[in-house]
């Protein structure tokens, strides 16, 4: 039962499940059918509506487009109508105006024609008119006659041309006939060739078949080639794409590399600029420190001299009361001369001893320099000792080598002995001839012939002088050969006496053999002389060729440089305005003329040298001719000689070839220094003579002492020169002309010592003649340092003189004087109850300052001061003017106003104009006036808002914070409409400038002296051309 129930339940449940599944399938199918049917209905409805809307839109858009087209068409037609109407109106207006203008022209021309007609009628009535007409007719007839002649000439020319053409035509017809015959022959050959055409056609058929085969093969090959071409094109396109990608990557990498390189170069350049600036600052600081030390040393030296004078006065002044005479009166006095090389101790007599309380204290700088000099001398002594040891070793080595080679020395000794014997024999012959001539002259000739004025006497005397000259030359050669023989024998002598005996006997035997074999020796000597002659000729030709090649290269290089310079000047002139272009062209023309003048002077010197050489050759030839005339005179009787007329003899003056040196005696040194330095007046020398003449004379004297290899003379001359210059500057140190004169001469003397020192760095600016004048025996580098220090001291003294002259002028001329009239007429509002210095007229004006500057500049130019040194002096002068003016402006409240700022700016512009006129804008003088310019601008600008404060902070970069605040505090309004600077504005300025790192000093250091440099400036003046004027009183020196 239970099983039956379970089975029944199973079948029932299965039936119910199948029914439920069937129901689910039917519902799912019904929903799908509904979905597709609803979709169909909705899509059909959408399509109908979409088609209707599209039709409506098309009709609407067409309607709108047609309306727009009609509007554009109407506008276009309206524009055309307007164009036509406006054109018609313009043409009608133009025609009316033209008609009116033509009518006016006609009326005016008719009026002028009537006037001309009246004049012609009046002229026609006069007789002169007929004459003029006839003259015109005659001229016309002459012109017509000339035309007829010209036409006849042309006709003749045409006839000649026709005849030439006929000849050409005949020649051409003959050529054509020959061509016709040749064509006939070619026609016959063509008939023969027709038979060959048939065979050729058969060959053509065969060739056509071959051509078809080749075409088919060609098609196959072309198809294969097309496929290959497509493949290669695809491959090439792929490679191109890859190449473009690689190029892009390469460009990106290159761009990155270039950027990195630029960044690196920029950073390196910035670092380099910063380092160079720092080095320049350090160098200027060192120069300033060194020059300050020199200044201090000169001050101490002056004090030392003053103390010495006081001590001498104290010694020589008699004391009241008991006098004590010492038994010993001798003591040593040390006199220090400012030099790095010389420190001499001189004994001076008659000086009494003093107690220890009154002795002069020891100068530490002097002691340290002397100690340093002692160490230098010890080092030099050690170096000299090492060199001496090395030289001794070299001598020992050379002696050892000479002992190893005695045979070569023996041959040379034989040759020298032969030459000596030959010279002695020639000397004997010359003596015999001289004696014979004297005997013949004294015995055979008549007294009239041997008279002093007779021609035979002159000829014989000339021969006698020539023979004596040759005799002296032979004597000198014999002495030289003997000395050489002695030195060689002493060098060859060995240590053992036996060897010396054997060697000497061998040498004597060899000499005896050579005496026996005289012919061989003469042949050997002749060959040697010919070889020497050939070698000398070859060397002279080689030197001349090299000189010509070097000259041509130099000319080519100079022409290239001149061409480049001309192109640069042309490009610069094209960029300049017309006025500046004219000035530049004039300057260029002046420089070109000066260069040509210098070249012509050099050519003139060369021609003078050639003239001197030719004169010397002429003298030699004259001697030879005189000898020939003597030979002819011996064959003529004395009577014939007396009857002949005596021609006058010109005695030529010997022209000396000066070497650029001046010779003087040792005892004349003090006289030279006295006349050339101590008693010389700069004004007369600067006006009448060449600049730097004392320096040139002193250097020429130094050159002669160097030429003589006299170190004591060089040392004493340079020492006395330096001491004398110091004495002159101590005696007349307040005179600007004296200080400027000796500054320029000291610098020129220093430049001469550098130029002719023989160092390559200084010789490259010299000519070949100037290089020959270089010092040969002494190195004066330490004296150059001494002269440089002396020049620094003179420069500092010059600056002090300038400051003393300019200081009383600056305040009155730059601040107090009213250069612009009417600006400072109103007193500042804060100063109405007291008198001001603005109203007072000072004794000096700006014009007086400019006149003083002009006088300084003209004096320095007259003295021949270096242009770079003049720039440094001008820079120092302008610094003094700016510093003193600014300091007085900061200390005076009545000067801090708007009008005074305008006055100061105008005065500074006048100083800048002076710099521009003197071509000194690049001297750095304008930069020294920058604080004063900014102070004047600060007085003129607005001082209210924050923008004004920012502008002031950016503008006043040369002024310190304390100076800016001081000017703002002292600012006083000119009238009631202006206002004082508010405290808040000054505080904002201080807040903005608090990060600025500058010195807290208010006033500028007016005593500050810039470090001076002396750039090398070589002179183009040749030393041998310098003439010593008689006004200097130097007759005791002579040119060499």
| Alpha carbon gap, first and last residue | 169 Å
Report the sheet-strand fraction: under 5%
Largest sheet report: 2 strands, antiparallel
Helix content: over 70%
Figure out the total of helices: 25
Instruction: Enumerate the spans where pLDDT stays under 50 for 5 or more consecutive residues.
Output: 317-364, 444-452, 492-517, 634-655, 825-842
- Compressed to H and E, one letter per element, the order equals HHEEHHHHHHHEHHHHHHHHHHHHHHHHE
* Overall spatial form: extended
**Strands of the biggest beta sheet: in what spatial order?**
1-2
Radius of gyration: 57 Å
Give the helix/strand class.
Answer: mainly alpha
Overall average pLDDT: 76
Pfam families: DIL (PF01843), IQ (PF00612), Myo5a (PF25966)
Organism: Homo sapiens
Protein name: Myosin VA
Keywords: Coiled coil, Repeat
Architecture overview:
With 1040 residues, this protein is an all-alpha fold. The protein has 25 helices and four strands. It has helices at residues 2-125, 127-316, 364-404, 406-443, 455-492, 497-516, 518-575, 578-634, 638-643, 669-678, 682-688, 693-707, 711-731, 736-755, 760-763, 768-772, 781-816, 846-862, 867-891, 898-917, 925-928, 930-940, 946-955, 961-970, 983-992; strands at residues 331-334, 345-348, 662-663, 1038-1039. The strands form two sheets. A two-stranded antiparallel sheet has the order 1-2. The protein has a two-stranded antiparallel ribbon with strand order 3-4. The radius of gyration is 57 Å and the shape is extended. The chain starts with a helix and ends with a strand. Residues 317-364, 444-452, 492-517, 634-655 and 825-842 have low confidence and may be disordered. Residues 127-310, 367-443, 535-624 form a coiled coil. This is Myosin VA. It comes from Homo sapiens (Human). Pfam families: DIL, IQ, Myo5a. InterPro entries: Dilute_dom, IQ_motif_EF-hand-BS, Myo5a/b_dom, P-loop_NTPase, Vascular_dev_regulator.
């Amino acid at each position: 039962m239970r099983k039956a129930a379970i089975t029944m339940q199973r079948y029932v449940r299965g039936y119910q499940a199948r029914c439920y599944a069937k129901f689910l399938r039917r519902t799912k199918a019904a929903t799908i059918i509904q979905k597709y049917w609803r979709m169909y209905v909705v899509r059909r409805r959408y399509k109908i509506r979409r088609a209707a809307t599209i039709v409506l839109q098309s009709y609407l858009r067409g309607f709108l487009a047609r309306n727009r087209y009609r509007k554009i068409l109407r506008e276009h037609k309206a524009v055309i109508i307007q164009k036509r109407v406006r054109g018609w109106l313009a043409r009608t207006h133009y025609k009316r105006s033209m008609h009116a203008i033509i009518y006016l022209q006609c009326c005016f021309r008719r009026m002028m024609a009537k006037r001309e007609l009246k004049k012609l009628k009046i002229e026609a009535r006069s007789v002169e008119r007929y004459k003029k007409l006839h003259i015109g007719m005659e001229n016309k007839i002459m012109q017509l006659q000339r035309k007829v002649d010209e036409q006849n000439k042309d006709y003749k020319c045409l006839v000649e041309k026709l005849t030439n053409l006929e000849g050409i035509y005949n020649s051409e017809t003959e050529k054509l006939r020959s061509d016709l015959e040749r064509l006939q022959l070619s026609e016959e050959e063509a008939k023969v060739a027709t038979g060959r055409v048939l065979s050729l056609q058969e060959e053509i058929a065969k060739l056509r078949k071959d051509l078809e085969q080749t075409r088919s093969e060609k098609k196959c090959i072309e198809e294969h080639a097309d496929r290959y071409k497509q493949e290669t094109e695809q491959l090439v396109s792929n490679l191109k794409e890859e190449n473009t990608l690689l190029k892009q990557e390469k460009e990106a990498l290159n761009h990155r590399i270039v950027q990195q390189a630029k960044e690196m170069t920029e950073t390196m350049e910035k670092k380099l600029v910063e380092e160079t600036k720092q080095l320049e600052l350090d160098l200027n600081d060192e120069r300033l420190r060194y020059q300050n030390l020199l200044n201090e040393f000169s001050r101490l030296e002056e004090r030392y001299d003053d103390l010495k004078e006081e001590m001498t006065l104290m010694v020589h002044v008699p004391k009241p009361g008991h006098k004590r005479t010492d038994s010993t009166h001798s003591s040593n006095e040390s006199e220090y001369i400012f030099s790095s090389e010389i420190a001499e101790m001189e004994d001076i007599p008659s000086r009494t001893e003093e107690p220890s309380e009154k002795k002069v204290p020891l100068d530490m700088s002097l002691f340290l320099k002397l100690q340093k000099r002692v160490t230098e001398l010890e080092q030099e002594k050690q170096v000299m000792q090492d060199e001496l040891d090395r030289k001794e070793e070299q001598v020992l080595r050379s002696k050892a080598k000479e002992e190893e080679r005695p045979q070569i020395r023996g041959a040379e000794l034989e040759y020298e002995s032969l030459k000596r014997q030959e010279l002695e024999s020639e000397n004997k012959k010359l003596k015999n001839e001289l004696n014979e001539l004297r005997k013949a002259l004294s015995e055979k000739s008549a007294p009239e012939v041997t008279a002093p004025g007779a021609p035979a006497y002159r000829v014989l005397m000339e021969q006698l002088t020539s023979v004596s000259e040759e005799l002296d030359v032979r004597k000198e050669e014999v002495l030289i050969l003997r000395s050489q023989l002695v030195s060689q024998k002493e060098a060859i002598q060995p240590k053992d006496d036996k060897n010396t005996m054997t060697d000497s006997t061998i040498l004597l035997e060899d000499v005896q053999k050579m005496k026996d074999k005289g012919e061989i020796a003469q042949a050997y000597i002749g060959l040697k002389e010919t070889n020497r002659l050939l070698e000398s000729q070859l060397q002279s030709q080689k030197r001349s060729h090299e000189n010509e090649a070097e000259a041509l290269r130099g000319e080519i290089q100079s022409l290239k440089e001149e061409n480049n310079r001309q192109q640069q000047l042309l490009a610069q002139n094209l960029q300049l305005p017309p006025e500046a272009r004219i000035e530049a062209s004039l300057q260029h023309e002046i420089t070109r003329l000066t260069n040509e003048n210098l070249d012509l002077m050099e050519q003139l010197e060369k021609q003078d040298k050639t003239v001197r050489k030719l004169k010397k050759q002429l003298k030699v030839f004259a001697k030879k001719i005189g000898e020939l005339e003597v030979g002819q005179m011996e064959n003529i009787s004395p009577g014939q000689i007396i009857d002949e007329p005596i021609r006058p003899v010109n005695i030529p003056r010997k022209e000396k070839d000066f070497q650029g040196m001046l010779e003087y005696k040792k005892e004349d040194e003090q006289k030279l220094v006295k006349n050339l330095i101590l008693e010389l007046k700069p004004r007369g020398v600067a006006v009448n003579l060449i600049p730097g003449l004392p320096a040139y004379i002193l250097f020429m004297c130094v050159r002669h002492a160097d030429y003589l290899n006299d170190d004591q003379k060089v040392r004493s001359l340079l020492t006395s020169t330096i001491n004398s210059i110091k004495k002159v500057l101590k005696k007349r140190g307040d005179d600007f002309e004296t200080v400027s004169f000796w500054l320029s001469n000291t610098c020129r003397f220093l430049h001469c010592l550098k130029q002719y020192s023989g160092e390559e760095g200084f010789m490259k600016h010299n000519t070949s003649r100037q290089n020959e004048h270089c010092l040969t025996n002494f190195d004066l580098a330490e004296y150059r340092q001494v002269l440089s220090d002396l020049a620094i001291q003179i420069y500092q003294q010059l600056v002090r003189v300038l400051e003393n002259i300019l200081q009383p002028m600056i305040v009155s001329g730059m601040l107090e004087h009213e250069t612009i009239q009417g600006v400072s007429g109103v007193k500042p509002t804060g100063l109405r109850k007291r008198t001001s210095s603005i109203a007072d007229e000072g004794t000096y004006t700006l014009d007086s300052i400019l006149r003083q500057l002009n006088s300084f500049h003209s004096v320095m130019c007259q003295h021949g001061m270096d242009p770079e040194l003049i720039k440094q002096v001008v820079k120092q002068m302008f610094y003094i003017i700016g510093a003193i003016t600014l300091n007085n402006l900061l200390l005076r409240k009545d000067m801090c106003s708007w009008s005074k700022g305008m006055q100061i700016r105008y005065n500074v512009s006048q100083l800048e104009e002076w710099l521009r006129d003197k071509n000194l804008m690049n001297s750095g003088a304008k930069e020294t006036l920058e604080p004063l310019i900014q102070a004047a601008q600060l007085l003129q600008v607005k001082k209210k808002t924050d923008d004004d404060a920012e502008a002031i902070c950016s503008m006043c970069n040369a002024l310190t914070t304390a100076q800016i605040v001081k000017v703002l505090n002292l600012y006083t309004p000119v009238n009631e409409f202006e206002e004082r600077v508010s405290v808040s504005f000054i505080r904002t300025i201080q807040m903005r400038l608090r990060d600025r790192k500058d010195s807290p000093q208010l006033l500028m250091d007016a005593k500050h002296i810039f470090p001076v440099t002396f750039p090398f400036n070589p002179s183009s003046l040749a030393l041998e051309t310098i003439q010593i004027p008689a006004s200097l009183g130097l007759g005791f020196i002579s040119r060499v």
